[in-house]
Design goal:
Blueprint (H helix, E strand, L loop, with lengths): L7 E9 L3 H12 L4 E5 L2 H8 L3 E8 L7 H9 L9 E5 L5 H8 L4 E4 L4 H13 L11 E7 L2 E7 L1 H51 L4 E6 L6 E4 L10 H5 L5 H4 L2 H16 L5 E9 L5 E12 L5 E10 L1 H5 L2
Helix pairs in contact: 2-3
Length: about 325
């Protein structure tokens, strides 16, 4: 942890977070805005840092080992040299009594987790722009509060508690806005999904009345089928049998054409400039006869250029090949 002397630095923020990942994310966010940041992994480390320098703001998680955020705030606010440092606690606010505990610990502000980055920065900027409060001159007052059917008697500084309650309300509004955004986004996604499903059904309808059989084959041994249109029934094969691997497509190809087809597919697959190719070969049908097909294949590759799938259509061209 860095040391900056005992004078308050208006751009220096102490963050207290036991999660290294969350601490680094918050530190990076604040430093990107020009703030100097010191990170402590616990309340104990935070107090050690505060003995070396006085930051303009403390942002602390609540749930931490050794000392939670409430106790840290209580320690800071009980020290006459530190009590004017604003304390922001990061909380899920899953328990309404967190508000009571925050009032008792003289917490200045709450920010809900997961926090919106812009909202957090706006709160930090507001704190930094505001005057340093001399809260040590304000007296504690006892207050009786009824919350969710429970009565509480707390010792608070009213001026601080108003700020805490205001930030709690502000967070509730922020959460509500975020929920509305998420609901709107979900509706948008659902509408896009509905349109996509409709288009897929339309495409399936077109495929089913088309003589061309659509397929997707994995670029693996025996070319396992991932998708085949139901009109493969024209060759007396059930799509379910092909999808389940009970019938392998490679076995359907006529034995005299199989080696050539495999060699051509291998050649096209190795050529990374090849995106599609066509082949004509014979297949054995479930009826026991032989048909000629025109196989028009599109090559699908991953980000490394490795072929992962073959997709395309197969069209019966027996009449053209054999004539009337």
């Amino acid at each position: 942890m860095t040391s900056s002397g005992n004078s308050t630095q208006r751009s220096h923020i102490l963050i207290v977070e036991d999660s290294l990942t969350q601490s680094m994310l918050l530190q990076h966010l604040l430093e990107a805005q020009g703030y100097k940041v010191t990170a402590a992994a616990s309340g104990t480390q935070a107090l050690e840092a505060l003995a070396a320098f006085k930051p303009a703001l403390i942002i602390s998680d609540i749930v931490m080992p050794e000392m939670d955020g409430f106790e840290l705030s209580r320690r800071v606010k009980s020290d006459k040299n530190l009590r004017d440092i604003p304390v922001i606690l990061l909380t899920a606010l899953s328990d309404s009594e967190d508000v009571i505990r925050g009032m008792e610990a003289l917490v200045d502000f709450y920010l809900t987790k997961p926090y919106d980055e812009d909202f957090l920065l706006s709160k930090v900027e507001a704190v930094m722009a505001g005057p340093v409060e001399e809260n040590h001159n304000l007296g504690l007052q006892k207050l009786k509060i009824s919350l969710w059917g429970k009565n509480h008697e707390v010792s608070i500084i009213p001026e601080l508690s108003l700020g805490l309650l205001a930030s709690t309300y502000e967070n509730a509004i922020q959460i509500n806005r975020q929920l509305h955004k998420e609901i709107a986004e979900r509706k948008r996604v659902e509408e896009e999904l509905r349109v996509t499903v409709k288009r897929l059904k339309e495409m399936e309808s077109i495929i089913e009345i088309s003589p061309a059989v659509a397929f997707v084959r994995r670029a693996e041994e025996n070319w396992p089928i991932e998708f085949v249109s139901d009109n493969v029934l024209q060759f007396d094969y059930e799509s379910e049998d092909l999808l389940a691997g009970q019938i392998k497509y490679i076995d359907i190809i006529h034995p005299e054409d199989r080696e050539r087809v495999l060699a051509e597919v291998g050649k096209y697959s190795q050529d990374k400039d090849t995106e599609e190719f066509s082949q004509e070969y014979r297949i054995n049908t479930g009826y026991g006869d032989v048909r000629w097909v025109d196989d028009r294949t599109f090559v699908r590759r991953n980000s490394k250029g490795v072929v992962t799938h073959y997709q395309g259509i197969i069209l019966d061209v027996t009449e053209r090949k054999l004539g009337p």
